[in-house]
Amino acid sequence: MAKRILVVEDNDLNRKLFCDVLKSQGYVVEPVGDGRVALESARSFVPDLIIMDIQLPNISGLDLIEAAKLDPALRPIPVLAVTAYAGKGDEERIRQAGAEGYLAKPVSIGPFMAAVKGLLAQVGAVAG
Question: Where is the signal peptide (predicted)?
Fold first, then answer.
C-alpha cells in the first residue's frame, strides 16, 4: 500500500513541487496550504509522514509540530521540517519541538527524497 504524506506549505509553488515529486514516486499526497487546518487534516488523512513548513501565516510550524507531538493520534507520525530558517540554532530548536527531520530551503530533490525515504523507513521499522 502506498505511503501517505501530508504536505503543509503555504507557498503554492513549493507545495506543488513537493506534491508532484512525491506523487511521481508513488506516494499518496494531501496538500495543505493553511497551517490552521493542518492538524485537522492530519487527523482525517492519517499520513505516514508530515512535511511541515515552519514559516506559515497565522500559525508557526513550530507550534504545529509541538501540538502534533502532544496529540496521541498524531504523536507517532514523523515530521520533516522544511524551512528557510537555516541560522545557527534553528535546526536544534525545530528538532526540540519534535521534528524528526530538517531540511533548509531551497531544497534539492535528491536530499528531499532521501529525507522522506529515511523517515518512512523508520516508520516501517517501528511498525514492522
Answer: none
CATH number of 4-127: 3.40.50.2300
Cα 29 versus chain centre, distance: 11
Closest by Cα among 81, 88, 85, 87 to 116: 81
H-helix or E-strand containing 31?
strand 28-32
pTM: 0.95
Instruction: From 37, 97, 96, select the one nearest 65 (Cα to Cα).
Output: 97
Give residue limits of the domains in the chain.
4-127
CA distance from start to end of the chain: 14
Q: Comparing 83-87, 96-100, 110-114, 123-127, which segment has the lowest mean pLDDT?
A: 123-127
